[in-house]
Amino acid sequence: MKMATTSGRISLLLRKRGSMSIADLAGSLKLSKMAVLKQLTRMESEGKVGRSVVKKSVGRPEYRFSLTSLGTEEFQPQYYEMLGEMVNYFKLHGGSSLVEGFLRKRYEEMRETLYGSITGKTMEAKVSALKRIRDRAGYMAESKKMPGGNFEMTEYRCPIFTIANEFPVACALETGMFSDLLDSEVDAAHRQVQGFSACRFLIRPRANDAVMLHSADAKVSNELE
After folding, report:
1. Predicted model pTM
2. Is the pLDDT of residue 119 over 60?
3. What is the Cα–Cα distance from 73 to 94, expressed in whole angstroms?
4. Confidence at 216, pLDDT banded by 50, 70, 90
5. CATH class assigned to 80-224
6. Where are the domains of the chain?
7. CATH code of the domain occupying 6-73
8. CA triplet 133, 137, 139: central angle to 5 degrees?
9. How far apart are the C-alpha atoms of 205 and 115, rounded to whole Å?
10. How many CA atoms lie within 13 A of 158 on its CB side?
Protein backbone atom coordinates (compact mmCIF):
# COMPACT_ATOMS: atom_id res chain seq x y z
CA MET A 1 0.00 0.00 0.00
CA LYS A 2 1.29 3.47 -0.90
CA MET A 3 0.66 5.58 2.20
CA ALA A 4 1.51 8.79 0.30
CA THR A 5 -1.68 8.54 -1.76
CA THR A 6 -4.94 9.97 -0.43
CA SER A 7 -6.54 6.54 -0.26
CA GLY A 8 -3.48 5.22 1.58
CA ARG A 9 -3.66 8.03 4.12
CA ILE A 10 -7.37 7.37 4.61
CA SER A 11 -6.68 3.67 5.17
CA LEU A 12 -3.98 4.44 7.71
CA LEU A 13 -6.25 6.80 9.66
CA LEU A 14 -9.06 4.22 9.70
CA ARG A 15 -6.58 1.57 10.77
CA LYS A 16 -5.48 3.71 13.70
CA ARG A 17 -8.85 5.07 14.83
CA GLY A 18 -11.26 2.29 13.89
CA SER A 19 -14.00 4.38 12.30
CA MET A 20 -14.33 8.02 11.27
CA SER A 21 -16.83 10.38 9.71
CA ILE A 22 -16.22 12.29 6.49
CA ALA A 23 -15.79 15.49 8.50
CA ASP A 24 -13.20 13.84 10.78
CA LEU A 25 -11.24 12.51 7.80
CA ALA A 26 -11.39 15.81 5.95
CA GLY A 27 -10.13 17.67 9.01
CA SER A 28 -7.27 15.24 9.64
CA LEU A 29 -6.19 15.18 5.98
CA LYS A 30 -6.81 18.90 5.41
CA LEU A 31 -8.94 18.11 2.36
CA SER A 32 -12.46 19.07 1.35
CA LYS A 33 -15.31 16.76 2.33
CA MET A 34 -16.08 16.25 -1.37
CA ALA A 35 -12.53 15.08 -2.08
CA VAL A 36 -12.67 12.62 0.83
CA LEU A 37 -16.11 11.36 -0.19
CA LYS A 38 -14.83 10.71 -3.71
CA GLN A 39 -12.03 8.53 -2.35
CA LEU A 40 -14.31 6.74 0.10
CA THR A 41 -16.86 5.97 -2.63
CA ARG A 42 -14.14 4.37 -4.76
CA MET A 43 -12.69 2.42 -1.82
CA GLU A 44 -16.21 1.27 -0.88
CA SER A 45 -16.82 0.01 -4.42
CA GLU A 46 -13.56 -1.96 -4.19
CA GLY A 47 -14.76 -3.57 -0.97
CA LYS A 48 -12.02 -2.01 1.15
CA VAL A 49 -14.23 0.32 3.20
CA GLY A 50 -17.67 -0.07 4.74
CA ARG A 51 -20.04 2.43 6.30
CA SER A 52 -22.42 2.40 9.23
CA VAL A 53 -25.08 4.87 10.37
CA VAL A 54 -24.77 6.41 13.82
CA LYS A 55 -27.86 8.16 15.18
CA LYS A 56 -27.19 11.40 17.05
CA SER A 57 -29.32 12.90 19.78
CA VAL A 58 -29.55 16.10 17.77
CA GLY A 59 -29.43 16.52 14.01
CA ARG A 60 -29.14 14.06 11.18
CA PRO A 61 -27.64 10.59 11.53
CA GLU A 62 -23.93 10.41 10.73
CA TYR A 63 -22.14 8.00 8.41
CA ARG A 64 -18.96 6.49 9.80
CA PHE A 65 -16.45 4.60 7.68
CA SER A 66 -14.15 1.75 8.64
CA LEU A 67 -11.88 -0.75 6.94
CA THR A 68 -13.30 -4.08 5.84
CA SER A 69 -11.35 -7.33 6.16
CA LEU A 70 -10.16 -6.77 2.57
CA GLY A 71 -8.98 -3.28 3.45
CA THR A 72 -7.17 -4.59 6.51
CA GLU A 73 -5.36 -7.21 4.43
CA GLU A 74 -3.46 -4.42 2.67
CA PHE A 75 -1.53 -3.89 5.89
CA GLN A 76 -0.16 -7.42 5.70
CA PRO A 77 3.02 -8.29 3.76
CA GLN A 78 2.76 -9.42 0.12
CA TYR A 79 3.90 -12.93 1.08
CA TYR A 80 1.02 -13.20 3.60
CA GLU A 81 -0.89 -15.91 1.68
CA MET A 82 2.16 -18.08 0.97
CA LEU A 83 3.30 -17.81 4.59
CA GLY A 84 -0.15 -18.94 5.73
CA GLU A 85 0.05 -22.02 3.52
CA MET A 86 3.51 -22.84 4.87
CA VAL A 87 2.35 -22.54 8.49
CA ASN A 88 -0.62 -24.82 7.80
CA TYR A 89 1.68 -27.35 6.12
CA PHE A 90 3.93 -27.51 9.17
CA LYS A 91 0.97 -27.94 11.50
CA LEU A 92 -0.59 -30.70 9.43
CA HIS A 93 2.68 -32.61 9.15
CA GLY A 94 3.76 -32.47 12.77
CA GLY A 95 6.22 -29.63 12.42
CA SER A 96 4.83 -27.41 15.18
CA SER A 97 7.81 -28.07 17.45
CA LEU A 98 10.16 -27.03 14.65
CA VAL A 99 8.34 -23.72 14.19
CA GLU A 100 8.38 -23.01 17.93
CA GLY A 101 12.07 -23.90 18.12
CA PHE A 102 12.79 -21.56 15.22
CA LEU A 103 10.85 -18.72 16.86
CA ARG A 104 12.70 -19.10 20.16
CA LYS A 105 16.06 -19.08 18.36
CA ARG A 106 15.06 -16.10 16.21
CA TYR A 107 13.98 -13.92 19.14
CA GLU A 108 17.08 -14.83 21.14
CA GLU A 109 19.28 -13.78 18.20
CA MET A 110 17.28 -10.58 17.75
CA ARG A 111 17.67 -9.76 21.44
CA GLU A 112 21.46 -10.16 21.23
CA THR A 113 21.66 -8.11 18.02
CA LEU A 114 19.54 -5.22 19.28
CA TYR A 115 20.90 -5.06 22.82
CA GLY A 116 23.84 -2.81 21.93
CA SER A 117 21.55 -0.33 20.16
CA ILE A 118 19.34 0.16 23.22
CA THR A 119 21.32 -0.44 26.41
CA GLY A 120 22.90 2.46 28.28
CA LYS A 121 20.24 4.99 27.30
CA THR A 122 17.57 6.75 29.34
CA MET A 123 14.20 5.03 29.43
CA GLU A 124 12.69 7.47 26.97
CA ALA A 125 15.62 7.04 24.58
CA LYS A 126 15.34 3.23 24.85
CA VAL A 127 11.66 3.29 23.89
CA SER A 128 12.35 5.69 21.00
CA ALA A 129 15.18 3.49 19.74
CA LEU A 130 13.01 0.36 19.87
CA LYS A 131 10.19 2.22 18.10
CA ARG A 132 12.57 3.22 15.25
CA ILE A 133 13.87 -0.34 14.93
CA ARG A 134 10.35 -1.75 14.75
CA ASP A 135 9.27 0.92 12.30
CA ARG A 136 12.14 0.06 9.96
CA ALA A 137 11.13 -3.60 10.21
CA GLY A 138 7.68 -2.77 8.82
CA TYR A 139 5.57 -2.69 11.99
CA MET A 140 4.39 0.94 11.54
CA ALA A 141 5.27 1.70 15.14
CA GLU A 142 4.53 4.73 17.29
CA SER A 143 5.51 5.47 20.88
CA LYS A 144 4.55 8.04 23.47
CA LYS A 145 5.17 8.90 27.09
CA MET A 146 2.29 8.28 29.47
CA PRO A 147 1.43 9.77 32.89
CA GLY A 148 3.46 8.42 35.79
CA GLY A 149 6.62 7.88 33.76
CA ASN A 150 5.24 4.94 31.79
CA PHE A 151 5.27 4.56 28.02
CA GLU A 152 3.10 3.10 25.29
CA MET A 153 4.18 1.64 21.97
CA THR A 154 1.62 0.88 19.25
CA GLU A 155 2.19 -1.16 16.10
CA TYR A 156 -0.36 -0.88 13.29
CA ARG A 157 1.11 -3.61 11.12
CA CYS A 158 2.08 -7.17 11.99
CA PRO A 159 4.45 -8.87 9.50
CA ILE A 160 4.27 -12.09 11.56
CA PHE A 161 0.47 -12.10 11.90
CA THR A 162 0.02 -15.43 10.10
CA ILE A 163 2.57 -17.17 12.32
CA ALA A 164 1.37 -15.53 15.55
CA ASN A 165 -2.23 -16.44 14.75
CA GLU A 166 -1.30 -20.13 14.76
CA PHE A 167 1.58 -20.03 17.26
CA PRO A 168 0.77 -17.68 20.19
CA VAL A 169 4.23 -18.33 21.58
CA ALA A 170 5.50 -15.79 19.00
CA CYS A 171 3.64 -12.99 20.80
CA ALA A 172 4.90 -14.12 24.21
CA LEU A 173 8.50 -14.27 22.96
CA GLU A 174 8.18 -10.85 21.38
CA THR A 175 6.85 -9.26 24.58
CA GLY A 176 9.60 -10.98 26.58
CA MET A 177 12.23 -9.58 24.20
CA PHE A 178 10.84 -6.05 24.66
CA SER A 179 10.93 -6.48 28.43
CA ASP A 180 14.58 -7.61 28.39
CA LEU A 181 15.72 -4.90 25.96
CA LEU A 182 13.97 -2.10 27.86
CA ASP A 183 14.62 -3.59 31.32
CA SER A 184 10.95 -2.91 32.03
CA GLU A 185 7.66 -4.61 32.68
CA VAL A 186 5.93 -4.87 29.28
CA ASP A 187 2.31 -5.93 28.88
CA ALA A 188 0.53 -6.45 25.56
CA ALA A 189 -2.80 -4.68 26.10
CA HIS A 190 -4.06 -5.35 22.57
CA ARG A 191 -3.01 -7.82 19.90
CA GLN A 192 -3.99 -7.91 16.24
CA VAL A 193 -4.40 -11.68 16.46
CA GLN A 194 -7.14 -10.98 19.04
CA GLY A 195 -9.05 -8.88 16.53
CA PHE A 196 -7.75 -5.44 17.49
CA SER A 197 -6.61 -3.00 14.82
CA ALA A 198 -3.17 -2.67 16.42
CA CYS A 199 -0.79 -4.24 18.91
CA ARG A 200 -0.45 -1.98 21.94
CA PHE A 201 2.28 -2.41 24.55
CA LEU A 202 2.27 -0.78 27.99
CA ILE A 203 5.81 -0.22 29.27
CA ARG A 204 6.50 0.32 32.98
CA PRO A 205 10.13 1.12 33.88
CA ARG A 206 11.68 -0.88 36.67
CA ALA A 207 12.96 0.91 39.78
CA ASN A 208 16.40 2.07 38.54
CA ASP A 209 15.12 3.39 35.23
CA ALA A 210 12.17 5.08 36.94
CA VAL A 211 14.59 6.98 39.22
CA MET A 212 16.75 7.97 36.23
CA LEU A 213 13.69 9.13 34.30
CA HIS A 214 12.47 11.20 37.26
CA SER A 215 15.92 12.80 37.60
CA ALA A 216 16.02 13.64 33.90
CA ASP A 217 12.55 15.20 34.06
CA ALA A 218 13.53 17.22 37.12
CA LYS A 219 16.68 18.46 35.36
CA VAL A 220 14.68 19.64 32.37
CA SER A 221 12.18 21.37 34.66
CA ASN A 222 14.98 23.20 36.51
CA GLU A 223 16.55 24.33 33.24
CA LEU A 224 13.24 25.76 32.07
CA GLU A 225 12.67 27.73 35.26
Report:
1. 0.68
2. yes
3. 28
4. very low
5. alpha beta
6. 6-73, 80-224
7. 1.10.10.10
8. 95
9. 17
10. 24
